[in-house]
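Fold this sequence, please.
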Amino acid sequence: MATTKNDIKAYVRVRPLSSKEYGDYICLPDHCTVNLTEKKKEERKTTPATPLAKNSQKIKSDGMVTPRKTLSNSQTFATPLNNSQQPRRDAMNTPMKNIPHSRPISNPMERNAPALAYQFDRVFGPTANTEEVFSHTTESFVQEILDGISCTCIAYGTTGSGKTHTMVGNLQSPGLMRLTLDKLFQTMQDDGIDFDVQISYIEVYNEKVRDLLNNNSILDMSMYALSRSVESTSEAMNVLEEGNKIRAQSATEMNAQSSRSHAILQIQVKTSYEGETRTATLTLADLAGSEGISENHKESASINTSLLVFRRVVVACSSNEKPPFRDSKLTKILKESFVGNCKTIIIANVSPSDDSFSHTKKHIGTCSKIQKNQHYRI
């Protein structure tokens, strides 16, 4: 029986360090402690320390540190001066770029502040693959859709945090879109359910709604996007690939192919079984990543503004206040995902890199307000 209560859950997925980021964390001299795997620790034990160069780090009596170049690249590190200054996690002995000479350590995790606590429905670590994420998130959507309950999954996070990898994926590691559609079509075929599936694919770029399946035409909010009828996952993924070819993308400091628009795939599912007809919508959204203002000021400002409104909507829904849906095209489109008969999952994709610390704290802080089923301390 379909429920009339909106259900919103929050998940966090932490992506692994990239090869470049991992290299930035590694420093051969023994006095530079980092969070390495056991294998790397064993390698370090057998690696002789290299004498420090003339520009090596010097510790001053006033508690300041001067930068020291690493052996592998030109990144600079700020190393704790003594055990009392050790950060709460070893991984936070992190590279600090372009540090002025004799600048004190400024990593937020190294301050004498109480540990922050957040609550989520589940947290997926760097070793979790997308299939594991699927089994705990959108796999349950299939039965909900067949019961006539609309469902939404939103990937949310900073640029380069793995949102598109989580939602779209690739041939070697399919994303939630393919895995969910696979399960949906397989279930309908196995149960002998008659179905009609229509797909539409739109993006919100610079506060304009574009139809990715209709030559990127601009839509008014009162207009409906062009839909395609599909009968299998492969047909649906072909439609998705067609739309992704013209989706707004550009290179950023964090990602060579960063999505610069909010992409929303909507799947209308009409089923007929034993004389009963049901209709539901499956919405899968890959939001653009938040970041600092780039060279394209208008683009960055538009993304950050829409994400700010999105966060306000999430907070308002969690505190029973009136959400500001009308303040952004994105939230207008996603309104039905937060009200009425709908199941919604928000996956906060975060990076373990120190460069993304402020964004990570902001995103998990927002998502922790949604639903507090399990407690995680970070």
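Residues 27-41, 49-109, 251-256, 372-378 have pLDDT under 50 and may be disordered. Residues 297-318 form the longest helix (22 residues).
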